[in-house]
What does this fold into?
Amino acid sequence: MEHSANRHDQTYSVWKRFVETGIIESSIVPETITNSWKRSKNYGVDPYQKFNQHVLRGAELDALLNSNKDFIRISRPFIENLYTFDCDSGFVAILFDNDGYLLAILGDVEMLRQVARVNFVVGALWSEQTVGTSAVGVVVHERVPVQIQSSEHYYRHGHQITGSGAPILNTDGSFIGGVSIFGPAKKANQHTLGMVVAAAHAITYSLRAAHALSQVTLSNKLRKAIIEKLPEGILLLNNLNEITMTNRRAELMLDLPIDSTGKDFFTSIGKGNESLRNYMNKNDINDEEVQIIRNGTAKNFTITFCTGYGTDEQDVGKVLILNELSRLKSLTNKMVGARAKLKFNDFIGQHPLHLDTIRLGKKAAQSISNVLILGESGTGKNILAQAIHNESNRSRGPFVSVNCAAIPRELISSELFGYAEGAFTGSKRGGNPGKFELADGGTICLDEIGEMPLDLQTSLLSVLEDRSVVRLGGKEVVPINVRIIAMTNRNLKELIDKGMFRADLYYRLNVITIEMTPLRKLKSDIELLAKYFANRIADKLNLDPFLFEEDALNLLSEYPWPGNTRELQNVIERAINSAASNVITKDLLPSEIRFKIPHAEEVERVKNMEDMERHMIIEMLKSDISKTNISKRLNMSRCTLYRKLKIYGIKY
It folds into this structure.
């Protein structure tokens, strides 16, 4: 939550500067958002407007809804289901057309009352031309899934919400509109975009399926061709639950016999599927998780079930859409960025110890064994983990990173292993997959593994041994195919001796061990890294290349870098932002570097703050800095400085 608040503050600062000056000087805001901001500004949108003035009413609104009645009817069950997912969380689900007009809005009464104040109502035009950057406006312009978080909205009233939107395609592949869900930014879930994308896909396919059904008497061959192209399993059933058509994907998913057409669906798939029958006895449903047993083997799917209507609005059959759960997890991971971006060529350095680390990492990438990466904070453990994943045969799979120290103890179990429906108060309908399920087919990176509670270590050991998980409050065993990379800056052997870490888990993780070398032991690489960071940061800020004063490079090389490479990068970035020219001089470096304030191995010799202050004063006096400037740098009066000189026994 602290990270989210910090990111909001940073984004808000960038937004505020842009709306006031039209200048963007930060890479924290994605290019998709900044491009939309620029379009919004060019359209002349007032980011501080109190409400949207572009709303259709009366006959114009009736005409809008009438022209989209089929679109609204087919989409409504999916919108209702999307809203039901977070109906108690202040979220609103909407359907909009290809211009950005709002066609349907579902939400709790209080939330609808609040958004109505800014004219967020059916018939309102919520495009970039009217309110600027929003999940609706960007989808209409870009026609791709998007998530707009808090101050990424151009419209100031949108800074308290997060919106996720995805496009819907018509039967001919054209853009017909989209679906979106938004609510309080602090309640936004990382999987929300995946749900919205799934809903948009389901509506797209329902539109196609409904169209195919309405044309059944005209072109059975065309209908068959359409559903064969869909990546989902599609089955068309008549009112007696007899199979009238399937695509090849459905036949493979359910291992249906060749002559299944015309047969009862439940007879064809066999016994043990009462839960599926119960679902299909309900009204239309969308993306419900269900387990289907076929030939004694259980498979997990999400099921979408809707009724097809003829031109006379009569029920003419049913459409069953099956998605393998693993495919939806992969889709969600892509939408929320669960992938590794860094590779081995992102490492900079020529020191033999550094090159040895790269060599071990590349060997680990070719293995299937668990990896344990050890090292101090800031040494690049996460970069190495991503590089190992990207060079492995799992590179096309998800890369899911979990910081075991950042998740509250009471939530870490459900975060890692997921939870079943009804597992606890407030749990989502249908349950929620954990990080291990989301990482299926790829890599899960367990950062700060040494901070994991002992009881969770037992559960993790079970997952490693069985290669399966059971969701919190559930009974179903979910097989997983995941490679584990664990990381820590703690001494696990010491934790084992203290009873804080399981020895058997340590030996399970400690198959391939890679120790990251701290920067203070890579002195020959410090200058190379400093120049690399300077060039990269200058390029991001659209500045000319920076040079280094020789004295500055010497100070950088002599400093022990307790924060390692991460600290070096921050020091260079701070210097560039403070520089009056394109030369980094020693004056731009922090005082602890300029005056050699003890750090790392030396820090034990500095017993308290008085010793450190005395050391700093002596170093500045040696550098011929005037007492006036010394008192200013230490934020004290000259009288206080003279008093401390006497106390510390420093001759002046």
In short: The domain at 217-332 is CATH 3.30.450.20 (Beta-Lactamase).
